[in-house]
Amino acid sequence: MKSEEKLQKKNASKSEMSSLPVDALDPAVRDSIAKRLLIRNMCSVKVENLPKHYNYSTILELAPEMSSCRILYDPVSRRPKRFAFIEFPSKDIASKCLIRLNNKNFGGKLLNVSLGGELSESVDDYRHNCVKLSNLHWRTSKGEISKHFPNAISIDILTKIKTGFNRKQSATAVVTFNSIEETISAVDEKQGCNVHGRKVSVMFCPKKKNSLLVGLTVYGLKKSSSESDLRALFPQASEIKMFPLGGFAFLRYDVADDCILDKKNALGASLKQRKLKVVFKFASEAPSAANSDSTVVDKQCHSLVCVTNLDRSTTADQISKLFSGAKIVSMPKKGKLHKGCAVLDFGSVLAAKRALSKSHSLNGRMLVLRMASKKLLKPIPSN
User: Fold this and answer.
1) How far apart are CA 221 and CA 251, in angstroms?
2) 3-class state of residue 176 by DSSP
3) Following DSSP, what letter does each residue of 12-30 receive, concatenated?
4) What stretch of H or E contains 248?
5) Are 241 and 214 in contact (CB under 8 A)?
6) Which of 129, 208, 202 has its CA nearest to residue 172?
7) Which residues are in the RRM domain (predicted)?
8) Under 8 Å between Cβ of 260 and 305
9) Which of 36, 150, 292, 374, CA to CA, is 20 to 30 A from 227?
10) CA distance between the termini of the chain
11) With respect to CATH, is domain 213-282 assigned 3.40.30.10?
12) Which CATH architecture has domain 123-206?
């Protein structure tokens, strides 16, 4: 009976904290949380173009003075993403590390290092009774975490792979407290604590993003598989994007019901003697209200065109000469060169449609033009 009463009290306290509106927070508490978010970003660096098979030991070798790090996992390639965030005790140490590591040759790759942890600095985007632990060893248990957080009312270790945890993937955990004060204290005192031989990143837990069903991802394809082969299995798809080297394809749907129906019909399907794995694809939306910048992007999207299949050595001047009436909005980079695509603003719907209706070539390559998506809208750096 006593154990049941304790559980009821814990659940009640958790529900009260989760239902607490952000506006109800004390202004002083909001300011202290915002200050910690800002400081964490200032004391972090982003290391890009890392070698394929790097791990925690690799990051520790690069920056032994770090307080913690965040290594993100790519479920498609089944290895860490090619960038990681390293967190330091102060901004000065972070700046010194940036100078030391930027353009350094490491594992045959030239590192690209920039200041900032890319954490949202909006207080509204976080749950204020929880902290998120990043960079945990995959074997970490709840008992090891509870030694560092004795006041926690619950500990949830998150695993992203249902069929078993991948050893290459760092684990994450969510630790819930009774009060906001305990949460802030945990962020201040436990950042960089050693759990199972690793320096762990401790930060406020982000809210879950609203997800929207947009399509299907099909795995297990051969390189020789074509769009027409997939179209026969998934007739309702409005757009099919093939990734031959990765052995998968992304299918976009205008109607969610068509997406669900196609997945149901393709259950146990095979293509060219290979059994296909079909999973839903969701698009995430930020939990907070869209800011003024996003509304500007929505208004401009109709005149923006994405140009792909560019040679990576193509310059902005060459693109400007080919599309004389357009302005270059973005050229996403990979290392020292761009990724082979650019986003152009033609100023009007008519001009954008006119460009889409024509064929264009540059440096012996046939260019592919389509309407730009919001995620590509990052301004090119000014010279």
Assistant:
1) 13
2) strand
3) HHHHHHHT--GGGS-HHHH
4) strand 248-252
5) no
6) 202
7) 43-118, 303-374
8) no
9) 374
10) 70
11) no
12) 2-Layer Sandwich (3.30)
CA distances from residue 331 to 171, 282, 317, 340 in whole angstroms, order as listed: 34, 26, 12, 8
Which residue type does 112 have? N
Residue 274 buriedness (CB in 10 A; 0-12 / 13-18 / 19+): middle
Using one digit for the tens of pLDDT, what is the confidence trace for 247-271?
A: 889 999 988 888 999 999 988 888 9
Q: Is 162 helix (H, G, I), strand (E, B) or coil?
A: coil
Strand pairing of 79-87 and 44-48?
A: antiparallel
CATH topology for 28-115?
Alpha-Beta Plaits (3.30.70)
CA distances from 208 to 84, 286, 287, 374 (A): 22, 9, 7, 21
Structure tokens at 171: 């684990």
Q: Which residue matches tokens 């090619």?
A: 82
Query: Which amino acid appears at position 305 of this protein?
Result: V
Cα 374 vs. chain centroid, distance in angstroms? 14
What lies within 8 Å, CB to CB, of 144 at 6+ separation is 195, 196
Query: Taking 70 as the threshold, does the pLDDT of residue 5 lie above it?
Result: no
Mean pLDDT, residues 71-95 taken together: 87
Output the CATH code of domain 304-371.
3.30.70.330
What tens digit of pLDDT does each residue of 290-337 get? Answer: 343 443 344 344 678 888 888 888 888 888 889 888 888 888 777 667
pLDDT at 44: 92
What residues does 215 pair with on adjacent strands?
252, 281
Q: Give the pLDDT mean for 343-360.
A: 83
**CA 147, CA 126: separation in Å to the nearest integer?**
24
Average pLDDT estimate for 82-103: 91
The Cα 136–Cα 199 span in angstroms is 8
Return the structure tokens found at 309.
């299949």
Domains 123-206 and 213-282 share a fold: yes
Radius of gyration of the chain (CA): 24
pLDDT mean over 88-114: 90
Q: Where are the domains of the chain?
A: 28-115, 123-206, 213-282, 304-371
| Residue-averaged pLDDT of the chain | 81
Kindly report, residue by residue over 184-205, the tens digit of the pLDDT: 999 999 999 999 999 999 999 9
